[in-house]
Amino acid sequence: MPPSRVNAAWLQPISTDPGLLVNREEELDDLVRRLDELREAQLRDAHFLITGARGVGKSIFTRAALARFEQKFPDHAVCLTVDSRGLRYRPFLNRFANALVEGIKPRAERFKRLGIARVLEQLALFANHSQINRTQTDTISRRYGADATLGADLLLKLQSKLTWEETRSVGQTVQLSLTVTDELLHAAITATLERLAEDDSRWMVVVFFDDLDQALPTDHEEDVAMLFRHVLDLRPCISLVHFRTEALVENVAREATEKIDLKPLTSEVLFELVRRRLEAATETVRKQFPLDTDWSAVHRLAACTGNPLVFLKWVHGLMRSQLWPPLESWKDPGNLARLVFTADPFNGADPELVRRLAETVDRCDGGRPQATLLREDLLRGCAKTDPGKAPGLTEQETDDLVKLQVLLPKHRFQPTLGYRMQPVLDLLRPSVRDKL
């Protein structure tokens, strides 16, 4: 069959669909087993830290584990996912509160747990309004009336934190309003979780805080640690927190009661990612890949990384930048550069500067994958122990590459500890090209 262009959208390099997870059975069974042990012991307060390198599959793994756990115990487990990326504290609280209401309130009404339903409706009022008036709370109280005990009233649980203010008079009627502060909403969520942990509640709440390390756009370590501390105070519940390894700081790691670290995948498993996605693609897409399709280029790419996101981006870039099946010339430096910049434009970084960076990195780390790069080595052009001489990067070029996120700090808040190059760029390194 002559070479032709194919549509590569079916690869989904960035995907959190649990159905596309491949070969994490050991870790999945381990996490589901740990959750089941908590369920059997009727424990409702634990914190799991899901860590691993960027792109190793933390989100898709955790979502798959929670889907499996909820399917195994549909009458007890309520598994929620709160996407925290780019959120400041208040929007994060709003999203968590609404997820809690959406996940449990329909079940509470179906099983006639009206006391819990009442608390959840009151929580929704707090989450979706910056200011509420007495009329709104009275409406909820009348709706449930005698069917829900006063002990199920969120306002009574929070009465020491409520400050009603007279806002205006309508005729002879005084209207009272209440400002919903961050502290009040946090307390309302906590009180709701406490109600859900009582003996008459049938549900175990498991919450996945996805991308929590990217929730607060700040450069201060203490702010992220404080946010994490606030999240842990939203208890009792079983929480799972996704943290990239490079963002993990010591005081965050100490807070977790359990930790699961995801490792890279083998080349055989990486190819299975492509096969699994092709099976899920449309018939039109599958027809472009007959049984005798030459997948040697994909196998070669799989042998150069253990990171599923990096691998899928490479394959996606290869299919978009080359005819398919690709000619042997796809391994030429120019074609590899086109591949990686098709896979990721790197925020508009200069291709020539990026190529020089990749070659400098190869000299600095001796071909070791994702090794830490010291700034002085990048400026020197080689490691201190390397007797060879080669032009390095300038201070300005290094700063530009960090700003464009081509160079990533090893430690999010202490860049002086060194950098790592975006792993998608590894194909531009001479030592990696030789493996192809």
Could you explain how this protein is built, in words?
This protein has 436 residues and is an alpha/beta fold. It has two domains: 24-261, Rossmann fold (3-Layer(aba) Sandwich); 267-433, no CATH class. 45% of the residues lie in helices and 12% in strands. It has helices at 25-40, 58-72, 89-110, 114-127, 134-144, 154-157, 182-196, 221-232, 250-253, 267-280, 283-287, 296-302, 308-321, 333-343, 351-365, 375-380, 395-403, 430-433; strands at 46-52, 77-83, 131-133, 165-170, 173-179, 204-210, 238-244, 258-261, 407-409, 419-421. The strands form three sheets. A five-stranded parallel sheet has the order 2-6-7-1-8, sandwiched between helices. It has a three-stranded antiparallel sheet with strand order 3-5-4. β6, α8 and β7 (238-244) form a beta-alpha-beta unit. α3 runs parallel beside α7 (182-196), α4 (114-127) packs antiparallel against α5 and α10 packs across α12. The relative contact order is 0.13.
A few lines on this structure:
This protein is of the alpha/beta class and 436 residues long. The chain has helices spanning 25-40, 58-72, 89-110, 114-127, 134-144, 154-157, 182-196, 221-232, 250-253, 267-280, 283-287, 296-302, 308-321, 333-343, 351-365, 375-380, 395-403, 430-433; strands at 46-52, 77-83, 131-133, 165-170, 173-179, 204-210, 238-244, 258-261, 407-409, 419-421.
Estimate the helix proportion, in percent: 40-55%
Q: Provide the CATH superfamily of the largest domain.
A: P-loop containing nucleotide triphosphate hydrolases
Instruction: Please tell me the total number of domains.
Output: 2
**Named CATH architecture of the largest domain:** 3-Layer(aba) Sandwich
Oligomerization status of the protein chains = single chain
Query: How many strands in all?
Result: 10
Which topology of the largest domain does CATH recognise?
A: Rossmann fold
Percent in strands = 5-15%
